[in-house]
Amino acid sequence: MSKGVKAPKLEKEKGKSLMVLGTGSGVGKSLIVTGLLRIFSDMGIDAAPFKAQNMALNCFITRGGGEIGRAQALQAEAARVEATTDMNPILLKATGDAGCQVIAEGRSVGNMTAREYYAFGPDAWRIVTSSYRRLAEKHELVVMEGAGSPSEINLMDKDIVNMRMAKHAGAPALLVGDIEKGGVFASLYGTVVFQGEDSSLIRGYIINKFRGDMDILAPGLEMLSRKTGMPCLGVLPYMRHFLSEEDSLSLHLSGTSLSGGRALRIVVVRNHFISNFTDFEPMALEPDVEVVYSLRPKEIEGADLIIIPGSKNTSRDLLLLRQSGVERSIKEAVRKGVPLIGMCGGFQMLGHAIKDPFGIESEMKEIKGMGLLDVETVLEDPKVTTQVEAFEVGQIEAFETGQMEKLSGYEVHMGRSTGDISIFKLKRLATGEAVLDGSRKAGVWGTYIHGLFDNDAFRGRLLNGLRVRAGLPERKPVNNGAIREKSINAMADAIRENLNMGYIEDLLK
Predict the structure, then answer these.
(1) What is residue 243's predicted lDDT score, i.e. its pLDDT?
(2) What is the CATH number for 317?
(3) How many domains does the chain have?
(4) Mean per-residue pLDDT for 57-65?
(5) How far apart, in whole angstroms, are the C-alpha atoms of residue 378 and residue 19?
(6) Which of 199, 266, 425, 434 is the most buried (most CB within 10 A)?
């Protein structure tokens, strides 16, 4: 690591931009971009995030009703700018048999197989370059994030998010490797070598998630710098953070418990096509709550609360739960009095039927639901994508006492559910439409509102209802927004302390 090294300029520049690439998925690109954007914002620079193409089942809905990756919304928050669809113009959401749902400029353009999507490539490239141009015209600096590895040699000619985008923008690139995965030196070196002449765009590399002895690591850094001809810009330590992860690769046992005390145990049913599991992160921040993602009958039946989350293929996931016996365990837990919540696709599963007459998710035209709520769902276009304001109008039995404060959240779903819809009154901000949402029956309820548990007071009342049932003392909810802000700043501080920010700033001159 050479803090005094000066960054050479690129021969061509098309405005201020910076690219963060990775040796693979999950190496920490998203969070490093998040930290960099907070640093640039603190410096008074009007910066914005950009990821040309994202593949993720965690999404965010913009003010205008457009759908983007959750990571880009977090990055916009770090930059202190409003999230827009230009920040993630192409979003791919895996659906199983139907391939991927393709979201272009915030709107679904249908499901595509891999072959169909690559045929769509020229259109996708026009979309992403137009979005980049609008961002570059509006902001002083665009910090771009790659996807996966830029050196997937069978896909490099189809790439629209990594090196091709860096070349289009004239952006210097930083390459991130995750030492936690093992083989970090080979991964970094191989990524550079496979780029050939384009490797000149990579101006330095970063080691992420380091826990060891720097004296032992140093010889490897020196050798890699000699072989690649580029400096190590720093080594970031392994950090525990409370920021949204991009995909289900990160799902793990989460939450903490009070020392010596019993924790509330919330079991989230781990659907195969689980989506928007960031809904439950605020629960895991509570000091006496443990959130577990599981399909084990013993854990489900022993929970204080069961949640069936969203799914990108609701009918298929319901069928898998039925065939594996998990549905039987869920019903047995409900029979014993364990409260159950269904979120979005999970809400649809709790009704009497899910109908798919147009083959939106699969070839199954109709599948019987769990029958725990008096609703049924028809999957149909257009997709509902909107931020919402909500008021609770019906008491949710066994959880809390029906209050009338304004709640915030968002909807993103294909299905329309009818029947006993009676919990929330919604205002859809994208259209101004007023609708009812949610259904309840004894200790079971469901809703389409994502982000509901981000509302501290609502989450606090729900958890206190569970605590009372479990014979535990009530607690004041943590401030979810303050914890997220603290984590963003901690990431920025780690970058300031451990990376050669002077070199990075020189790249932008």
Answers:
(1) 76
(2) 3.40.50.880
(3) 2
(4) 94
(5) 42
(6) 266
